[in-house]
Amino acid sequence: MDAIKAIDAGGKQVAFVTAENNKLTGSVTDGDIRRGLLQGISLSDPVEKVMKTNPVHVKHDNWQKWFVLDLMKTDKVHQIPVIDDDGCIVSISSIDDLLEQPEPNNTWVVIMAGGLGTRLRPLTHDVPKPMLPVGGRPLLESIIRNFVAQGYRKFFLSVNYKADIVEKHFEDGTDFGADIRYLHENKRLGTAGALSLLPERPDAPVIVMNGDLLTTVNFDHLLQFHNEHQAEATICGREYQQQVPYGVLKTENSYLTQIVEKPSTKYLVNSGIYVVSPDALELIPKNTYFDMPQLFELLLKQDKRTVVFPMHEYWLDIGQFKDLEKAQTEFELLFGSES
């Protein structure tokens, strides 16, 4: 969908749809596209299937800074098109341009970096999996650099196996433009249990990510999706396609009705990236092995709102040797060379 390219290229969270002579006809956000994906709409479908047909806008002769900012606050948008008397876009007002000092992003990011990396032995005999070199630097460093490039600064690294290697490399994060603190697991606590080690209750939702992933997901889009849905927890889902390598026989009362050659089924699988609210964090037992799926199951049993953020961006879980080889091949194309 060209709308995705427009949103990503503009570095914003919205693209405006125009007709002849740049006449405004609609708007589409990253969230609109993802909701469409959950409803079965394909990325190849026309943008009209997901766009809003009457986006908030302002006439050029009514434009005043205070008015536009008030409109943004009321309608909870960051960009507003300015149109002329014929309804054609003449400019786009952005909240970043209107505010001299945009509010800094103080979201906490927790990265799970304490795994044993058993499937990657012998490479992980002497180094923890998140510290394996990919593209000329440790995988975990690339994850942190990617967050920092998107404006995130506050990190907690959950460490256990060979924690000293991680701490020696990153120290307090100053060299990476980050504020890094550590959650020390004295025993394995699972993908959620380490969150019980946070020193205090956060004031806002926390991003949680496994330390063996490469992704180009926009974390601002993820947080916005979580907040728009007023969720207790959000789980990122990545499409996974599974193909049967044979012709499948469909029958009815022993009679053949159809032969389907090598059919495939698509699933949304857990990508290892989450957003968790402060209230949901309170449900995690202390000093107990507890995985993220257990937290989501507990939230579902309590009828708490949990949502799925469908990812269309690049994502790779580096769990096996073939994944590590793929990461080495694709790294520079996606993230650039070592800097």
Question: In a nutshell, what does this entry contain?
Answer:
With 339 residues, the chain is an alpha/beta fold.
User: What class would the helix/strand composition place it in?
Assistant: alpha/beta
The CATH topology annotation of the largest domain reads as Spore Coat Polysaccharide Biosynthesis Protein SpsA, Chain A
SSE order, one letter for each helix or strand: HEEHEHEEHEEEHEHEHEEHEEEEHHEEH
What does the overall shape look like? globular
State the end-to-end distance.
32 Å
How are the strands ordered across the major sheet? 10-9-6-11-16-13-17
What does this structure look like?
The protein has 339 residues and is of the alpha/beta class. The protein has 2 domains: 2-98, Roll (CBS-domain); 108-235 and 268-335, Alpha-Beta Complex (Spore Coat Polysaccharide Biosynthesis Protein SpsA, Chain A), CATH 3.90.550.10. Helices cover 28% and strands 29% of the residues. It is built from 11 helices and 18 strands. It has helices spanning 2-10, 30-38, 65-75, 95-98, 139-149, 163-170, 190-193, 219-228, 278-281, 292-301, 321-335; strands at residues 14-18, 24-29, 58-59, 79-83, 89-94, 108-112, 133-134, 137-138, 154-159, 179-184, 206-210, 213-215, 233-243, 247-252, 255-261, 264-276, 306-311, 315-317. The strands form 6 sheets. It has a 7-stranded mixed β-sheet with strand order 10-9-6-11-16-13-17, sandwiched between helices. Strands 3-4-5 form a 3-stranded mixed β-sheet. A hairpin with a 5-residue loop joins β1 and β2 (24-29). The two termini are 32 Å apart.
